[in-house]
Amino acid sequence: MGPAAARQRACDPPRVAGLGVVAQHPEPTPPVDDAALAALQRRALTVLTEIAPAAAELGQVFADAGHELALVGGPVRDAFLGRVSADLDFATSARPDQTLALLAAWGDAHWDIGKEFGTIGAKRHARGDVPEVVVEITTYRSDEYDPASRKPLVTFGDTLEGDLSRRDFTVNAMALRLPSLTFVDPHDGMRDLAAGLLRTPIAPEMSFDDDPLRMMRAARFAAQLGFDVEPATRAAIEAMADRITIVSAERVRAELDKLLLAADPRPGLAVLTDTGLAAHVLPELDAMRQTVDEHKRHKDVYEHTLTVVAQAIDLETGPDGPVPGPDLVLRLAALMHDCGKPATRRFEPGGGVSFHHHELVGAKLTGKRLKALRYDKETIAQVSRLVELHLRFHGYGDGEWTDSAVRRYVTDAGPLLERLHRLTRADCTTRNRRKAQRLSAAYDSLEARIAELAEREEIAAIRPDLDGQQIMEILQIAPGPTVGRAYKHLLELRMEQGPMSPDDARAALLAWWADQQE
Question: What does the CA dihedral 31, 172, 86, 58 come to, rounded to 10 degrees?
Answer without folding.
Answer: -110
